[in-house]
Design a protein that fits this description.
By secondary structure, this protein is mainly β. It has four helices and 29 strands. The protein is globular, with a radius of gyration of 20 Å. Bound molecules: calcium ion (2 copies).
Length: 446
């Protein structure tokens, strides 16, 4: 997506949240998400258990040696951290501090490997962004830059999109913005880690010497709300795929979640042959996936961080509750879907037979510092039907900003909340202006 397009839903969410906060300072959390979730809940415990709290923008989550490691974005440059969570006691300990936008972390050869996101502006000069770092020893010590993903993008441009405006020479896409990293399972020879680069629209394979190879390039999406959507590269009309999450699965598979320009219903999961990168299967019908995990029985979990967020950039409806934003979708081996209401989840990890997730990952955008959590999502948190909390409002008009298209609709009824599958109906009134927003806060700088 070009910069002007990135404002979309997430900006709306941020603005909405800031306003909603004043209205609802005390947000309920830890309730059952509304409903007849489980008759035996008392015996089983809460469907969603808070494991650790007080985190600042927890994004990526991974399981290492009985611990959970969280990449905390922090509240600005130099405030990011890698934090170790003991899932039993809930204790937290920062093992890396002073980072800028760490997005995800894993362990390889007994050391931490983590990625830092790209700059907000898709420039070509920022130092230290879009980088894979390695720690010199187990978890601690001054990390060294291991691979420069932006340099690779500039040289190779795997998605073939126009990198610079031919006239102004300004960069178009965010050129690189790594959002997830996973270690290769087992002894996989020359490969070492895999990185999902949301800005470059690719999955990259790195070897132990930091050499980068393009592993998978998902296609631009041209269906649904993405059909005919303007792209910064006129030759690639549609939604950039934007890989956000990686997880290894059974039978030698690698799962890749793709945000798809935040277009509702157009998010996808690609199931790849983990050796060759060949596509075995595509799972469709997801809303802006930002993370993925695969369970012991081949079931998959996808986080949808902005699910249920009010569209547009105006204030949210009265009584809007930020805790209603976000959910995790479970898809079993037969394709049956169920849903757990988790506030703004991003990082997912299956650990010792249980699903763990980051929560309130975007709370900072709502002006709620330190609200980030790691939660355990128990199996009985998942329901076949959607959570039922809805807010219905009748605005005079609704301005929707999405994918660079501003739509103003004289509005009868807008329903917001987790029950709605927020579909972008084809705009009736459309002006294809570029909707630049200087106050944009983005999760995935695409
Ligand atoms: Ca693009
Ligand atoms: Ca590119």
């Amino acid at each position: 997506m070009r910069r002007s397009q990135r404002s979309g839903v997430l900006t709306g969410l941020a603005v909405a949240g800031a306003v909603a906060l004043s209205a609802t300072p005390a947000l309920a959390w830890g309730n059952d998400g509304g409903g007849n979730r489980d008759r035996h809940r008392e015996h089983r415990g809460d469907p969603i258990e808070v494991v650790a709290e007080g985190l600042e923008g927890p994004f990526g989550l991974s399981s290492i040696h009985g611990r959970l490691l969280v990449a905390e974005q922090g509240s600005g440059p130099g405030t990011g951290r890698i934090t170790v969570v003991n899932p039993r006691s809930g204790s937290t300990r920062a093992v890396q501090e002073g980072l800028t936008n760490p997005a995800a972390v894993t362990e390889v050869d007994g050391r931490l490997a983590f990625v830092t996101s790209g700059a907000e502006v898709p420039d070509t000069t920022s130092v230290g962004d879009s980088t894979v770092f390695l720690t010199p020893r187990r978890w601690t010590g001054t990390p060294r830059a291991f691979a420069d993903l932006k340099a690779y993008e500039l040289e190779n441009n795997p998605d073939g999109q126009l990198q610079f405006d031919p006239t102004t020479k300004a960069p178009l896409d965010s050129l690189s913005n790594p959002f997830d990293i996973v270690a290769q399972p087992g002894d996989s020879g020359r490969r070492y880690v895999m990185v999902a680069d949301a800005g470059a629209n690719d999955v990259l394979s790195l070897d132990s010497r930091g050499r980068i190879r393009t592993f998978f390039v998902p296609p631009v999406i041209t269906t649904g709300a993405c059909a005919g959507a303007p792209n910064n590269d006129p030759q690639h009309t549609g939604c950039d795929p934007v890989p956000t999450g990686l997880a290894y699965g059974p039978r030698n598979t690698l799962y890749v979640s793709t945000l798809t320009a935040e277009a509702p219903g157009e998010g996808r999961v690609y199931v790849l042959d983990a050796r060759t990168g060949d596509v075995r299967r595509v799972i469709t019908g997801l809303d802006a996936p930002t993370g993925i995990a695969v369970g012991d029985h081949g079931e998959i979990y996808v986080s949808e961080v902005i699910y249920g967020a009010p569209e547009g950039e105006g204030p949210p409806p009265p009584g809007f509750d930020p805790s209603s934003v976000g959910r995790i979708v479970r898809i079993d081996r037969h394709g049956t879907r169920s849903y757990a209401s988790v506030p703004m989840p991003i990082g997912l990890e299956f650990h010792h037979g249980r699903l763990y997730s980051t929560a309130w990952s975007l709370a900072g955008m709502f002006g709620m510092p330190g609200k980030g959590q790691v939660v355990k999502v128990n199996p009985w948190a998942f329901q076949r039907s959607q959570p039922t909390t809805t807010t219905t409002t009748t605005p005079a008009s609704t301005t929707t900003t999405m994918m660079g298209t501003t739509t103003t609709t004289a509005g009868p009824t807008t329903t917001m909340g987790p029950t709605t599958t927020t579909t972008t109906s084809p705009p009736t009134t459309t002006s294809t202006t570029s909707t630049t927003s200087s106050t944009t806060t983005t999760v995935v700088n695409t």
